[in-house]
């Protein structure tokens, strides 16, 4: 199966990802729904609120009984009843009458507005003077004013946020249908890689970084990380680790290998999976050109470069979008959609770039005299500290040969919020 495919552009890879099938839907309780992606649209089965409510403490009145009221010429109203919180009141607000009401109380019939207590002067136990008029609807939340009956609230593919959960709670939806979280296995390979727990690292070896960075990244995209393993550079060991991972996971993310010819090694692993279909073998990007993507049955297999910066950038640029698409995220399916938040900034250094290759350049974002600046962080892709110092990255498209200082750029922020 080791056919060699033409190196793909970043856009071609994203287009391939958009053709992936979504994972199945599952029902989760509202408490677990934040951050999940809706599988079916949601519309309102009832109005919110389902009765008119006061939004201020005061008196429920007929607005026309207060028209023209002022401090010098107050409107005199008789208090006939009091609304208790959480209970309907049987009394009706009649002409010249007022019913005391707390914020959130149910508006009595006949009333169309609430006079705030501050604009009333008690005359005696049963009488108030209103010193400022109200218009119909003042200080009242009407039935369905928050959410209308049948209102279309969220489409399939909507990424649920805390406030969305609040809407679902208001509607009494105790459970929602969302896409299953992708289960991801993270395999790191290389004879030079030793576990983080290694106290004295032998000469020629380094501690494992990628297992940790890739795990943290894919979790950020809502995936569950199952199997994690450091695998030696041995074909049989790699095949058996991949087989185990593919059996029980939706996605396998393998990083690194041996310095020479590792790509062939990863491709050779794929030869042992008859269903494997190589989708990407090399991407015209920097860093991370030697990236592999294959489909194995319904499963995805990513082969990422071993350099920690390259692995993280490819994960962010392609693996995370693939995880969002598996979860049916509409935001990941839009043309030109990028994962995460962005901000606009002014570049304060020249950024060289080669025509025909998309560059991902880490930057520091700072505010200088009210303007947001992006300062490139240069460094080799073996240097994880460059990303730790950066706030995000700028993408220089393949057709652009470098950017001059003063260019306005979009910074893709590492932090999602
Ligand atoms: N002669 C050439 N050499 C290299 C080329 C090339 O085109 N010709 N490409 C370079 C580029 S670009 C990259 S990227 C790397 C590709 O690396 P591999 O994916 O083959 O992976 P490795 O060789 O195993 O690792 C590269 C580097 O990353 C370190 N590494 C690997 N895994 C981890 C880990 N889990 N934690 C921390 N660091 C890790 C590994 O020790 C190597 O230093 O090849 C270039 N070479
Ligand atoms: O493609 Mo490599 O990832 O630039 O270091």
Key terms:
19% helix, alpha/beta, 417 residues, Molybdopterin biosynthesis moea protein, domain 2, six-stranded mixed sheet, binds molybdate ion, Molybdenum Cofactor Biosythetic Enzyme, Chain A, Molybdopterin biosynthesis moeA protein, domain 3, binds ligand LQZAQKY5, 8 helices
Write a concise synopsis of the structure shown.
This protein has eight helices and 26 strands.
Largest β-sheet summary: 6 strands, mixed
Report the strand count.
Answer: 26
Write down the Rg. Answer: 31 Å
Chemical compounds bound to the protein: ligand LQZAQKY5, molybdate ion
Fourth-tier CATH superfamily name of the largest domain: MoaB/Mog-like domain
Structural class: alpha/beta
Beta-strand content: 25-35%
CATH topology of the largest domain: Molybdenum Cofactor Biosythetic Enzyme, Chain A
Secondary structure: helix percent: 10-25%
Shape: elongated
Q: List the total number of helices.
A: 8
**Termini distance?**
42 Å
Give the count of structural domains. 4
Report the average pLDDT across residues.
Answer: 94
| CATH architectural category of the largest domain | 3-Layer(aba) Sandwich
The strands making up the biggest β-sheet line up spatially as 7-4-6-5-9-8
Stretches where pLDDT is under 50 for at least 5 consecutive residues are none
CATH C-level category of the largest domain: Alpha Beta
């Amino acid at each position: 199966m080791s056919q060699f495919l033409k190196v793909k552009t970043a856009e071609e890879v994203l287009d391939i990802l958009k053709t992936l099938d979504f994972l199945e839907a599952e029902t989760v309780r509202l408490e677990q729904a934040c951050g999940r992606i809706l599988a079916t649209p949601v519309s309102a089965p009832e109005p919110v609120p389902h009765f008119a409510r006061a939004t201020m403490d005061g008196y429920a009145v007929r607005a026309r009984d207060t028209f023209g009221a002022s401090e010098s010429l107050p409107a005199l109203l008789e208090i006939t009843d009091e609304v208790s919180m959480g209970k309907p009141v049987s009394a009706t607000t009649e002409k010249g009458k007022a019913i005391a009401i707390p914020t959130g109380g149910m508006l009595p019939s006949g009333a169309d507005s609430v006079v705030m207590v501050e604009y009333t002067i008690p005359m005696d136990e049963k009488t108030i003077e209103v010193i400022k008029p109200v218009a119909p609807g003042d200080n009242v939340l009407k039935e369905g004013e928050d959410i209308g009956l049948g209102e279309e609230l969220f489409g399939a593919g909507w990424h649920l946020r805390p406030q969305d959960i609040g809407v679902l709670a208001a509607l009494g939806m105790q459970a929602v249908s969302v896409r299953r979280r992708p289960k991801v296995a993270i395999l790191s390979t290389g004879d030079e890689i030793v576990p983080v727990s290694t106290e004295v690292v032998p000469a020629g070896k380094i501690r494992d970084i990628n297992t940790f960075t890739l795990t943290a990244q894919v979790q950020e995209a809502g995936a569950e990380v199952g199997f994690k393993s450091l695998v030696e550079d041995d074909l049989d060991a790699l095949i058996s680790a991949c087989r185990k991972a593919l059996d029980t996971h939706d996605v396998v993310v393998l990083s690194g290998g041996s310095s020479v010819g590792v790509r062939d090694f990863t491709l050779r692993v794929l030869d042992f999976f008859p269903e494997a279909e190589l989708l990407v073998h090399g991407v015209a990007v920097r860093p991370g050109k030697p990236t592999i993507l294959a489909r194995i049955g319904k499963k995805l297999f990513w082969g990422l470069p071993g350099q920690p910066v390259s692995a993280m950038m490819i994960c962010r640029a392609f693996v995370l979008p693939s995880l969002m698409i598996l979860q049916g995220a509409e935001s990941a399916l839009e043309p030109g959609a990028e994962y995460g938040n962005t901000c606009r900034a002014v570049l304060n250094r020249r950024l060289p770039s080669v025509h025909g290759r998309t560059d991902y350049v880490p930057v520091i974002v700072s505010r200088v005299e009210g303007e947001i600046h992006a300062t490139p962080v240069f460094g080799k892709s073996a240097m994880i500290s460059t990303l730790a110092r950066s706030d995000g990255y700028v993408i220089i498209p393949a057709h652009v040969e470098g950017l001059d200082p003063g260019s306005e750029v979009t910074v893709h922020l590492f932090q999602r919020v």
